What does this fold into?
Amino acid sequence: MTLEPGPCKGLQPIRMQSNEHGIFPLQQPGMNDGYLDFVNSPLGNWLAKSLGLPKPLVLERYRAGQPVIDGPVLLGGGGAPELLPALARVFKIIGAQTLAHSQLRQWTPVANQAGLMTGAWGADGTGEKLKALVFDATGMDDSTQSDALYQFFHDSVRSLKACGRVLIVGRPPEACKNPRKATVQRALEGLSRSLAKELKRAIGVQLLYVTEGAEEQIESSLRFLLSPRAAYMSAQVVRVGLPVGPASTPADWAQPLAGKKVLVTGASRGIGESIAQVMAREGASVICLDMPQAQPGLDAVAHSIAGSVLELDISAADAPQQLVDAALAQGGWDVVVHNAGITRDKTLANMKPHLWQSVVNVNLSAQERINDALVASGALKSGGRIVCVSSISGIAGNMGQTNYAFSKAGVIGMVQSMAPLFAEKGITLNAVAPGFIETQMTAAIPFALREAGRRMNAMSQGGLPQDVAEAIAWFASPASAGLNGNVVRVCGQSLIGA
Ligand SMILES: NC(=O)c1ccc[n+]([C@@H]2O[C@H](COP(=O)([O-])OP(=O)(O)OC[C@H]3O[C@@H](n4cnc5c(N)ncnc54)[C@H](O)[C@@H]3O)[C@@H](O)[C@H]2O)c1
It folds into this structure.
């Protein structure tokens, strides 16, 4: 079914599409990537090949009801892999077909005992095409064991399908008592980031550091990182630790946020709209917040997901108290997503003071005040989640964006400094730093700069708002109690700040 709501004041009409789990926005007019469409047509494909032009692939993105992974997973490991039983448990639950690389042969009894369905895989080119490569490096305690990594990836990377996944699992170096072990675990980062650059074909490569004792917390991360939900994410390092607050497994993984109340700021359009849609798809009741001026768009988004509307300027002095009152009136909230943000670009020498102040206030200080008030009052419940939207500008810096980059780097600082404190209240705090995402914000960038921003990443294209929203939903899940203080980029491995 296709719905065409009337044009909203100041906004483009949004084309909506329904499926069995709700209504989802398609890309907004004027924000599509014409080059991507063209090179994926028969004529464009031929032309791109003949002229040696880059050919970005159409990314596989999650559709409700899809399996986590739709092809074989090859497992390998170095040293005495410590995570095999935990990996086996998750692969069994998600129904993944798992094959063992020959280097795991001696560990097959361990894996089988844990219920892992291991079959053999031929490294001689006769083996099946693979959807994912998973290497358990947790047992590696010296760099002299690195041949196992070389052998596994050398054998298998050519068999990996487009839009495939690579996951390396290790131990957080900072928690390793043995310096040799810390060294080799840290070295995994260089391997994973370089592989991500080499593999291309929209293959995402991630490194998951799992703290000893946190093995039971990996399920939500495996479900996310191996699936099409992580379509535009690559070369990221994620840390899974001991659970913050109550750890829980959703009764229904298709709707992990069922019964949860989720506040999304800046929800009237762009990334915020998509976050609201994905949260609703995951089962949440969504409170859609935006400025009073954004009311038409806000109403349309809230209506499409049966959510509620909150018109508020988050930078107003009384905003924290208003939010506390609104949350307590609803019996408390479970998740807060700080998505609202603004840019007011000028070089610092040409910047008027109000441009500096408004950006820092909206993007950073308001979030700090709101978090403090919601947590101190208990309006954000124990077991709650706060997810912030940073930016790669906050990691790499950007010409004409000193105010914006200051505020977005500050968001990262806030996550890192406040996460341990909020953990005492059973609340996690994480951030997603998007790269170039196709929204009205980026549609306003001059053509040449926009094209550069789109192509300068390992996937040669911009991301969609859904890509950011899926990562936020992963952090927001009640099953993600082991994720705290993480900042991940959703940027297709952008060259900027890499
Ligand atoms: N689009 C990108 O490529 C990109 C890249 C990196 C980071 N981001 C970040 O992602 C977030 C969303 O970006 P977008 O592209 O969807 O932007 P957008 O401008 O389309 O949407 C931002 C929303 O926030 C709302 N907002 C702004 N100030 C507010 C305030 N004081 N109170 C309440 N609501 C307010 C706006 O009304 C708007 O609806 C922002 O934080 C942005 O900095 C975007």
The pocket of nicotinamide-adenine-dinucleotide is lined by residues 265-266, 268-272, 290-291, 294, 313-315, 339-342, 362, 389, 391, 434, 436-437, 439-442 (CB under 6 Å).
